[in-house]
Amino acid sequence: MPKPARYIQLNQLRSASLSRPLDPANENPALAHSLYQKCSSVLSLAADDQNIYSGSQADDILVWDKATFTLKSTLQGHTGSVLALQYAPDRKWLFSASGDSSVRVWSTTTLTPLFRISPHLDSDSGDIFSLAWSPSLSTIYFGCQNTSLQWYAFSEDKGSIPCPPRQDPPFDTFCNNSGTATPRRAHKFFDSYPQYTRRAADLNARNSYRSSPSPPESSSPPTDGCLSPALSASMTAPAALDTPAKNMVWSAHYGYIYCMALSPSTYEGSDDKPASAKDEIRLVTGSGDSSVKLWSLPAGVPTLEHTFDCGSGAVLALTVRANTVYAGCQDGYVKVLDLETRTCVRTILVQEGVDVLSMSMLDSDLYTCSANGQIQRWSSSFDLSASWDGHSGIILSSLIVLSETPKDNADGASKPRAVLITGGNDDYIKLWDVEPPTARISDQTELDQVQQDPHNDTLLYALSKFISIPSISGHPRYKEDCRQAAIWLRKCLSQLGAESSLISTGEDNNPLVLATFHGAQTQTKIPRILFYGHYDVIDAHKSGWSSDPFQLLPLNGYLYGRGVTDNKGPIMAVACAAASLLRKRALDVDLVMLVEGEEESGSRGFSETVKKYKDQIGEIDAILVSNSTWISETTPCITYGLRGVIHCEVEISSSGSDLHSGVDGGDTMEPMMDMVKLLGSLTDSKKKVAIPGFYDAVRPLTSDERQLYTVLSGVTQTPASSLSAKWREPALTVHNVEVSGPKNSTVIPATIKARVSLRVVPDQDLDTIATNLQDYLKSEFETFRSPNSLHMSIKHIADWWLGKLDDPWFLALENAIRDEWGVEPLRIREGGSIPGIPYLEKEFSCHALHLPLGQSTDQAHLPNERISLANLQRGQAVLERFFTKVARGIVSEV
Ligand code: BES
Ligand code: MN
C-alpha cells in the first residue's frame, strides 16, 4: 500500500473541538473604530440610529455619537453599575438595569430620564442583570439577583404612565448631583455574596466603580474627559413606577438570572421576522443554576414551558435566532437549544475553561465573546470562521448594529455591512466591520451546503481524532490513553448534542461513556434505544502496518487505522446519525449511547456498573450494536447471531526453577511436555473437541437454516459447511503458550502458561462448558502421573447471542437497510463474541439488533485494519432511516 501525504495535521488531532479549525484564507473583521471610556469597564451596550449607549461600571450611561465617534452625553442617575441596556425602537426609549436594584427608562430623543422602575420588594431584588423589551406586549422583563423574574407593562398609549407615579424617596447625602439617584439598600442575603474571584458576571454584580453608597465628591468627576459634567444631560426627576406583586415570578431560577432574550429575536442583526399579532412570543432566561428556561407569555405573563439543563456551569449569555437559542456558558461552552423539539441540538466548544460572556448574531453567524478578550465567529454549521483578540481584558458586552452604508465591492456591487460592537473591562468599546454570512459567502448554493454539513465530514473529522488516541485496553501502558479516549468521546458526543458523562467501572478498569441524545419531547412516550459500543482497541504493532495505525489514513475509498471498523467508526456513524437528525430537528427517539473501554479485555466491570447505573440509563426498548462485518464486500447484511466465548488460562509448573537442558535434561519431567500432551488431548484429528458431552446441547440445524446457508454460500463462494462451522458450531483455539525464563534453547522452563478459548453456541451453557473443560483437563493431566502441577483459571466469558428474526425492531432495521441500499440485506450470523449484548438483553429485558457496517476484508484485530468510507457514510444514513422509522411507531412500520 503506498503512503500518501499525511491527511490531517497531528496538532489538530488532539483538540476536543469538533469545529473545523480556522481556514487561513478567512479574514478576521477589521477594527473600524475604538471608543475609550477612560474610567470604567463597559458592562452593557445598546444603540439606536444616532447613538451608541454604553453602560459603565461607574453607574453612568455614556452616549456616543455614531457618526463622529465622540462622547455626546452622560446619563446619570443609577447608583450602581449599569448591568444591562436595551433599546426600544418603537418608543425611542432606552432601558437600563443596574446594581442599584432599579430599571430606568430614558428618552433617546431628549436624553433625559423618564421612569424609574422599582422591582417588587425593592431592596430585596438585588442586582438586575438582564432586560428584554417586547414591543408587541409593551412590556419590559427583567431578571434579578434574588432569582425573581419581574416585568412591567406599559399601556399601549405610548409614553403614558400606567399607574400613578410615586415620588422618589428624598435625596440623601449620598446622591449624586443629578438629584435623581436612589442609593441601593443592602440586601439581607445577597449582599453577603463574596467578592468576585472568577466569574465575570459576578464581577459586574456588586463591584461598583464608586464604592457604594457613593461619596458626594465622586459625583463631580474630574475634568479629564471622563464623564465630563459639561456633557452630562441635565437630569429631571423620573416618574417612579412600582412593579406590582402580580408581575413577578418568585424563584424563577435557582440562581441569578444573568441573561434573557425573546423569541423571535428583537435584536438588530437578527433575520427573525418581527412578531406579528398572531405570533407567539416567548421569553428565555439563563441563570447561574446552569439552566435555560423557556416561558410562554400569555397576556404578557411568563408561564414556564420548559427547562433546559445546560449542565456546564452558569448560563452567562443568551441569544436567539427563530426557534434556536444559543446559551453561552461558564467554561467555554455554547449550548444550541431547539425550542420546538426542546432538545439540545449541539454544543459548541468555544475555548475550554474560558467563560462565554456575551454573544451576538448577524443572520446565521454567531459571535461569541470570551473572558480572555477573544472574539470568535461560528457558522451555521458550527464551524469557526473567524477568531481574533478583541480586548486586552474580559469582554463583557456585545451588540450588532446594521450599517446604512453598504460597502462597495471591487466589482462595483454593494455588500451589506454591519458593525459588531464589543465592550470590555479594558475600558474600550470596539467597533468591528462585519458582513452578514450571505455577503461573505457569495454563492447561494454554497451557503445551502454550509447549512447542512459544509465538508460533509463531521464523521470523518471526528473519527480522525478518535483514531489518534491509542485506547488499547489490553495493556496497562495505555491506561491513560484509554481515559483520554473516553474523555474525548464524552466531549465529542456532547458537542454533537448529547448529554454525556463518564462512569467509573472500578479502579483498574477503563471508564464507560454514557451519552443520551434526547429526542423531541412529546406528550406520548418516545422509543428509547440503547446503543452499545466499545472505544477500546486491540494493540497494533507497527511492523505489520503500511501506515501509522493511530493516524487515520483515507486511501482509495477506505479508511485505515486501528479501531476504524472495531469499533470506533461505527460508533461515530451512530453518533453522527443522531446529530444529523437533531440538526434537522427530526430526532424523535431517545438514543442512549453506552460505550465501554474494556470490551477487548472481556468487558471487565461492565455488568456491575450497568446494574449500578440502571436508573440513570432509564427504560430501554431495544438494544443496538454495530460491531461486525458483512460476509462479502458488496451486499449489506444484518447480523442475528454471535457465538459466545470462554477464555481459560492453563498453567503447568514444576516445583523447582528453570533448568539447563544440558545439565538436567533427561532427568526431569518437563512441564512443556505435559502442556503439549494436555493441549493435544483437547481435540481429535478432525478438530472435534474431546471434552465429554461438549456437543450435546448444540442446537440442530433446521431446514430453514440449511436453505439460508446455501444462499449465503453462493454469495461468499464458500461451502455452507464452512459458514456453519464458523457461526453455529462450537470451536476450540489454543492462542499462545508462554514459558518462564530466558526463552533460549538451552533452558527447560519451569512454568508454562497457555491460553485456550472455546467458542460456544446455542444452547450450550457457559458454566457447564467451563466446568467440563476444567474437569476434562484435570482428569487428562492425572493420567500423565506427572510430578508437575496444573492450575486453571477462567479469564473471561461471553454468552452466545441469537436475535429474533420476527421482532418488529429487527424488521424495521432490515427495512432501513433495504431502503438505503436498494437491495435485500442478507441475514447472517458471526463467529465472534460480544459479552455486552446477551448481558444487556437480560438486564433491560428487550431484544438486541446488530447492524454490521464493515466488510469481510476489514482486518479487525489485524494489521491494516480498515473500513469502507461509503459503508460508513451509508451506514449513518441507514441509522437515520431506522431512527426515523421506529419513531413513527414500531408496529405500524413493519
Ligand atoms: N467485534 C468483535 C466481535 C466480533 C468479531 C463480532 C467478529 C463479529 C465478528 C469484538 O470486538 C471482539 O473482538 N470480541 C472478542 C470478545 C472477547 C475479547 C471477550 C472476541 O470475539 O474474541
Ligand atoms: Mn474486537
Automatic annotation (TrEMBL):
* Keyword Metal-binding listed: yes
Positions annotated as WD repeat: 75-116, 283-297, 420-435
Task: Give the start-end ranges of region Disordered.
Answer: 204-227
Coiled-coil blocks: none
Instruction: Note the superkingdom of the native organism.
Output: Eukaryota
User: Might you name a Gene Ontology BP term for this protein?
Assistant: proteolysis
- Signal peptide feature range: none
Q: What is this protein's name?
A: Zn-dependent exopeptidase
Family in the record: Belongs to the peptidase M20A family.
The keyword Protease is assigned to this record: yes
Could you list this entry's UniProt keywords, alphabetically sorted. Answer: Hydrolase, Metal-binding, Protease, Repeat, WD repeat
Q: Can you give the residue ranges of the Peptidase M20 dimerisation domain?
A: 640-781
Organism of origin: Cristinia sonorae
Question: MF terms per GO, please?
Answer: metal ion binding; peptidase activity
